[in-house]
Amino acid sequence: MVTGARQALPVDLTGLRVAISAAAGGIGRVMADSFAASGARVFISDIDAQALAASPHAGLRADAGRREEVEAFMAAALAHLGGLDVLVNNAGIAGPTKRVEDIAPEELSETLRVDLESFFHCARLAIPALREAGGGAIINLSSAAGRFGFPLRAPYAAAKWGVVGFTKTLAIELGPDGIRANAILPGLVDGPRIRAVIKAKAVAAGISENEQTDRAVATTSLRCFVTQLDIANMALYLASPFGATISGQALAIDGDIQMLI
What we know:
This protein is an alpha/beta fold. Helices cover 45% and strands 14% of the residues.
């Protein structure tokens, strides 16, 4: 099986001011660590106060599903950093694993609030600071579910498709200001979240977790999960001078996944 990146992208981002939502653990934590290791100044949010306290990065506890807390995070980030060069919208929840007719309206609303609406609110508040900086980058975390249908995961897929449309619209609106907007579409990222999804889908399908894992990996040309560092490396690239002319793109980091099951 092919494995993902095991080495951080060697890029100098000294002095870059970066705000990352939901970054005390998982992909967000690896991105925050990678930006900091490259010389950037980082401010993060997370709903998990304990994980936030254990993080080496400055930050504020905020629930991405609550607009007033998102707004407080962005205000704190701008004040702490003295401006902004990069916004990474990373917040996300898995949402329900059910057929559409079995999903409660409240489950849909919660998924959309965290996985899509929080991106809008962070971007809305970041744009004036990015303009003031003379340009910058917005990096939105979508998913392979933002380009495929995803059975039993309708709210999540709807949100992630929405992220792609939002990103492309941002790119068009903000391009004249030198602000780039791109979406990263991770595939099967090894970690607790995908393991929980695999477990839920295995239960729904009446098969073992190992069988569901094998089915999922078989949908990728490289027959692999990707790593959190693979995703962080793409974020670093997009925020760096190497990504200076990349905007409006939905960039799949997924081992060439062909479908979601």
